[in-house]
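Box 3.1 A note on notation
Throughout this textbook, protein chains are presented in two layers. The first layer is the amino acid sequence; the second is a C-alpha cell string describing backbone geometry. Keep the layers aligned when reading.
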Amino acid sequence: MAGWLWGLIVLLVLYTAQLAVVLTMEHRRQAHLTAWMLICMACPFVGFAAYLLIGRRKPEHVIRSTGIRSASKRFELSQARSTIGHKERVTSQLVKSLSALADYPVTGHNRTKILTNGEATFEAILHAMESARDHIHLDYYTIRNDGIGRRFLDILTDKARKGIEVRVVYDGIGSMKLDDEYVQSLHKAGAAYACFAPPRWTLLDRKLNYRNHRKIAIIDGRIGFIGGINIGDEYIGLDPKLGFWRDTHIQVQGDAVHYLQETFMQDWQLAKGERLERLERYMPETTITDGERVLIVPGEPGTNEQEVVGALFAAMSSAQSRIFAATPYFIPDPAIAMSLRIAAGRGLDVKLIIPGIADSKLVLLASLSYVHDMLEAGVRIFRYQKGFIHSKVLIVDDELASVGTANLDMRSLYSNYEMLALLFDEKPIRRLEHDFMNDLAHSEEIDLKTFVQRPARQKAAEAIMHILSPLL
C-alpha cells in the first residue's frame, strides 16, 4: 500500500479519535459537546489541542479537593454554624427549598442597602475600609491600577502600615493587566495578596477556564459587599466606548457577612495555600437582634451540586406573578431557559433587560441568538440604551430578589466561582424593583416582527455564536 494512503488512514484514525475523546468527556454537557465537536471538526487537531488545554472538564473530585468545598469543609461549616447561630426559622416553601439547596443557611439578623452604580458602591466600600479596626479582605475578579484602583490602594497600604490585617485576592485572568507596581506597593506596606489561578500554571493544569468571578469585600467581619462591580474606572462611566455603566451592588451587615467571610477564607486558601483560622474576630457575633433575611449562595465550577443554577431555577419555577431579570450576558442553560419560557406561557409577567451597547460583540451575538425563542414564548426582552448595563439582578414576585456576581450565562453557571445574595424582605425587593423599572424606562423593547427581519448575515453570525456560546 502506498505511503500516502497509510498516512491518510492514520490521519483519519486520529481525526476520529479526537472526536471520540470529546464525546466521551462532554456527553453530560450537551451544549459544550456540540461546540467543541464543531471546533474539532472545523480545525482538526488544533481545536483538539485547545480543548485539552482550556475546555476539558476536570473530574468533580479534583475540582472539589482543590477548590471551594470538600467534605471536610462541609463538616467545618456545620461546626461554624453552631457558633455563629441566628439561623432563621423559615416558613415559606420557596425559602425552605432554597435553604435545602444551599451549603449556607438563611440568616435573619441582617441589614442590607442596595447600592446603585459605581459611585455609590465605591463611596460605601472606601468609607467602610477607612473605618476598619481589625482587617480588610478583598476578593475581586478585576482590579485595575487606575484612578479608582489607586484610591483603594492608598487606603489598603495606609491601613496595613497601621497594623490592620489586609488581604487581597485577585483573579489571574480578570486582573491580567494589574502591574507589579500595584502588588509590590501592597507587599511593602505589609498587606498580603494572592493571585487566584495564575494563567501560566492553570493552563498546564487544565484549569484556566475556571475563573474567580467574585467581587467581595469584608471589613472587620461586620460589614460586607457583593455585586457586579469590580475595582476600576469603567465602573464610574470612564470607559469612552461604553459610557455610562449601570450596575448593582449590595451592602450587608449581620450574620450573612460570616458566610461572605467563609467564602473568602476558602478562596484565600486556594489562591495562597494558607488556611485562616475561624477566629471570633473574623466572624464576630452580630448586635442586630432582628432584621432582614439573607441567603448567601456560592457557586463553583463543575456539573454536580450547582448551587447557583439550583437557586435560580428554584426561584424562577416558584414564580406566581412575575419574573424580572437584568443581565449583561444572556446565554442560559436549558433549565433556566425553560423556566423563563414556561413562566411566560403560564401568563406571568416575564421581563428581561440585556445590553443595547455591549462590551463584547461576540457575546452580544450569542445573547441575541436566544432572543427569538424567548419572544415566541411570551418573554418580553428589552435592550438598555443609556449605556452598558452590567447588573445581575433577579426579582421573583414579591418574595425574593437576587443580587450577585453571576450572569445568566453558562460560564457563570458552570465554569466560574460566583456568588449570589438572595433577599426575602420587602425593603430591598422594592428598591430593586424601583431600579428595574427605571432601567426599563431607558430601554427599548425588542419586537418579534421586527426582530425576525434582521439581515441574513446577522442571523448567520448569531447561529454560529449560538453553537459556540457555551464556551464564551
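The longest strand covers residues 107-116. Residues 59-91 have pLDDT under 50 and may be disordered.
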